[in-house]
Amino acid sequence: MIGVFALVTALAPTAAPAQRTARQGTNDSFWLGAGVGGAWLRVSCSICRSDRGTGVSGYVAIGGSAGRRTLIGAEATGRFKRDGSVRERNWGFSAVAYFYPNPRRKQFFWKLGVGVQLYRLEDGTDVLTASPFGLLVGIGSEFPLSGNFRLVPSATLSVASWGGGLKFNGASSLDDISLTMVQIGVGVMRR
């Protein structure tokens, strides 16, 4: 019995660092990402011109690991479009989770999230605003660049239609509005 205890004690210091190294390779503790692309927006309400077309979009995200298959974090997105004197902005703030079906490669992922969309349309005279809550779902893939950096092409669908009715010049005008946005772009992630 003393021999077994001595053998386990002798092997323990070498096994623990190996286990830590294996864990670090599959359990990234911190990540940061940013990207740009195009986004198509549809605004649905009784007084809205629904198809708002394509605008320039971008995102920033930050988070940590929640296991071998999952990263969690916060994401901010923006879509901007100008057509003459009409300016349109849409900001999104979401809690997100990235799920990797193959934890060994961590290349392809599904993204799920929940958050708020802040919409603003102005023409120099009148302003329409809304702030509904909703869900997002996306897909993407990671390709190693150098060191801890990865190239990340992705596509995301956001649908926000709960709460946050449309306001015209600050006064409530409608109770129901729905924002549907499709973003396609490319980013860089560091982890």
In sequence order, what are the helices and strands, one letter per element?
A: HEEEEEEEEEEEE
Estimate the strand proportion.
over 45%
Report the span from N to C terminus.
45 Å
Helix content: 10-25%
Global mean pLDDT? 82
Rg, rounded, reads 23 Å
Structural class, from secondary structure content? mainly beta
Q: In the CATH hierarchy, what is the architecture at level 2?
A: Beta Barrel
How many helices? The count is 1
List the domain count as a whole number.
1
Largest beta sheet, briefly?
8 strands, antiparallel, barrel
Q: How many DSSP E strands? A: 12
Q: What's the CATH class label?
A: Mainly Beta
What is the global morphology? Answer: elongated
As laid out across the biggest beta sheet, the strand order is 1-2-3-4-5-7-9-12
- Poorly predicted runs: 1-27
Which key features would you list for this structure?
191 residues; mainly beta; Porin; 8-stranded antiparallel barrel; 1 helix; elongated
Walk me through the structure.
- The longest helix is centred in the N-terminal third of the chain and has 25 residues.
- The N terminus is likely disordered.
- The protein has 191 residues and is mainly beta.
- A hairpin with a 2-residue loop joins strand 3 and strand 4.
- Helix content is 13%, strand content 62%.
- It has an eight-stranded antiparallel beta barrel.
- It has one domain: Porin, CATH 2.40.160.20.
- It is elongated.
